[in-house]
Amino acid sequence: MEGCKTGDEIAIQVQDVKKSFRLYYDKGHTIKDKALHRGRRQYHVSEILKGISFAVKKGEALGLVGHNGCGKSTLLKLLTRIMYPDGGSIVLNGRVSSLLELGAGFHPDMSGRENIYINASIFGLGRKEIDQRIGRIIEFSELEEFIDNPVRTYSSGMYMRLAFSVAINVNADILLIDEILAVGDVNFQAKCFRRLMEIKGAGTTIVLVSHSTAQIERICDRSIWIQDGLVKKEGSPADVHREYLDYMARQREDAMGAAQAETARDTGKDASREKQACHMHMRKSIPQDGQEKNHPVEIVSAVLKDADDKKRVVFRLGETVRLELELNALARMEEYLIEINLVRADGLFCAGCSTAEDGAACSAWLGRKRLELCFSRMELLAGNYHFDLHIAKADGGTFFFGGNIAAFEVAQREPGRGIVHLNHSWIWE
Amino acid sequence: MRLAKELWEYREMVISLVKRDLKSRYKGSVLGFFWMFLNPLLQLAVYTVVFSTILRAGIEQFYLFLFVALVPWIFFNTCLSAGTTVIFSQQDMVKKIYFPREALPLSFTISQFINMLLSFAVIFLVVLLSGRGLHLRALAFLPLVMAAEFLLALGTVYFVSALNVYFRDLEHILGIVSMAWMYLTPVLYSLDMVPQQYVGLFYFNPMTAVIISYRKILYDGVPPHMDTLLGSLAVGAAVLLAGQAVFGRLQRHFAEEL
Predict the structure, then answer these.
(1) pLDDT at position A322
(2) What number of other Cβ atoms are within 10 A of residue A421's Cβ?
(3) Which of A190, A222, A237 is the last residue of a domain?
């Protein structure tokens, strides 16, 4: 497409490729099954790719993104020629190597060196070509001392390092990669990444499938978002990924919204019984502290909203998060303070807000009461979080504790490092 | 032609797989390598005891008569029965990497063939010890007979390895088939012992001509009949082409079926 305009050489030309799978409910694999149970062999045809076209220029790096099951791995298998398309055509110019399976053909009883020869030959290298590369492969794997030991004596990390070193040193014209840059320790990963950049620099065409959009952005010139078997968007990785991640966040929001609506509906059906149960539950949840039984508090609702007063469960960095609570005190509450803790899903305590510390007034109250806690700029990095509510006595005891009263997710393109984003700037002197 | 060219490009893969197969057979155990010789020798001992002392077949030097046919039969039989799992047992590779799928049956057959060649060292020794001697004029035809059997075996491996992906019980069915096939091939007896009206039928079995030719060369010490030999070469080539065609069609869906 783009390539044709500029007249550059095309490495991969995919034209209207279609692929469906027959999904059997109960598939027989034996002659007996196939002969006797013909009726049982029902299937439905699932169309994975519905007509995909794109072209990759020589030396270009292309990223494929999409949710699980969108067809990107199938597409990669078609490109690798492991599977054949039902319709359309795929033209590949040059030697193709794929990093889909590492360590193919490895034999545990043979030495690392022998296995390099086997593995590399499966990638289509000739003896001379392997002889030329073997030094580099061994050096890359950092297994010089162990290279003549049988592979069965290797740790799994060493095994993967050897396998990856072979695959990445094949020097193909077209390199297809599926999510495997997570080999070895951090240093080895960095090295693989550098090697990949070198390979790219040397003019190899790369197609990378990854869930890490950040990885694609670092390597690829272009990104294709595949959605339901079709190309949804194509363009610079930054543009494509912004839309893709927004879409994914909306998806999650919808899914969570639907789940919440369901619970809400159920609650509405027999609200009184539910309330009773809830009440009981809260009473029960305190008995560790025993004496608080007499001051139960109910949470009537706990909702997260954004600055526009819209209910939300997925937020982005920098947005306003408002926790709206409606509480019901069954006994008169006096001399209390409220603490709301923000906790990450793995249990990390991120932040605590206390009415006492913030000097927010807590007047005596009975019956229903609304409370809002507002974070005008939420600076947490991507992850799942929830709020815990603690209503404490002024003297340190507990009136009420509710764990995970409201949960939300922070969706971000970059997972980021650490817990929060702190506003910062760089200054050179 | 395209296939031949591609297999040539991947010749290093075929060579490595053959080497891996042969090496792995004797690595790990001291006796391992000798099993390759021991196995046919032990089978030979059993059959010799049964057929020259119990079920006397009345064949002179029966052990030799049997041995020169048994070794080639074992080669073909292994291809027929163990050949089924060639693709299935290497499915991780088949599902994840591109290479001409034909390389797997090919390397399997070659490694079995090399095993047979090694056993032939023992055959030559036994022939010499028997006092019958090796006749060069006859031995000159041995490579042709071996070639015919190789083509036949390779074609068979193409068939069974591809079909086994779709019908997993083929392996077990072929266990029975290979036993019946052995008794319907003149391995344990000579074709002269077959009632005249059935002899024609025996020639529908491509292994009959192969076994007869081996026996002519090594037991009788004379060149095989040219029409028998050329016939088995032609049949071998035909089976190979048919096997390749079937394999070529079926391999398109290997990755989905496995």
Answers:
(1) 92
(2) 19
(3) A237
